[in-house]
Specification:
The protein has about 140 residues and is of the alpha+beta class. The protein contains four helices and seven strands; from the N terminus they run βααββββαββα. The strands form two sheets. A five-stranded antiparallel sheet has the order 1-5-4-3-2, with helices on one face. The structure holds zinc ion (ZN) (2 copies). One zinc ion (ZN) binds next to helix 4. One zinc ion (ZN) binds next to loops.
């Protein structure tokens, strides 16, 4: 395993969002580390696909260092991944659930919770900082 692989410069997980959406999310610049893809960082990652999952998701392996990744590719099928998580070798890839990490990134993107309650009738959760709905109702 090469210590020089560019994979190691990427965070444990990240999510790239379209620029139009980023503008409205105050947490994206505060927690920029989690919202920059390899393209923006000039990092060149080269993957082998190991397993195609539902939709745009796949399990891939770095060609250089063999780091395993859970990836959801951007619709254009470009190099820039929409959502990526580093997997640990002992993890069961088929059963990997990306939702908790996506929710965490959504919370960061909105810079946490605001002071108002969710606009959904009967929901007692606090709304995300830059919306009127809570994390559960916002979706991922
Ligand atoms: Zn690598
Ligand atoms: Zn709610």
């Amino acid at each position: 395993m090469s210590l020089l692989c560019e994979c190691s410069k990427m965070p444990e997980f990240y999510r790239c969002l379209p620029n139009g959406i980023k503008k409205n999310l105050p947490g994206v610049s505060i927690f920029a580390h989690f919202f920059q893809g390899p393209d923006e960082l000039n990092i060149d990652l080269d993957f082998d696909t190991l397993l195609k999952l539902e939709g745009r998701a796949l399990i891939a392996k770095c060609k250089k260092c063999e780091q395993h990744w859970y990836l959801e590719l951007a619709p254009e099928e470009t190099i820039s991944e929409d959502f990526a998580v580093k997997l640990h070798p002992e993890q069961n890839w088929q059963q990997f659930d990306p939702v908790p990490i996506k929710q965490f990134l959504t919370l960061l993107a909105h810079n946490g919770f605001g002071q108002k309650k969710c606009a959904w009738v009967g929901c007692d959760n606090y709304a995300l900082g830059s919306t009127s709905i809570c994390l559960q109702h916002y979706g991922v």
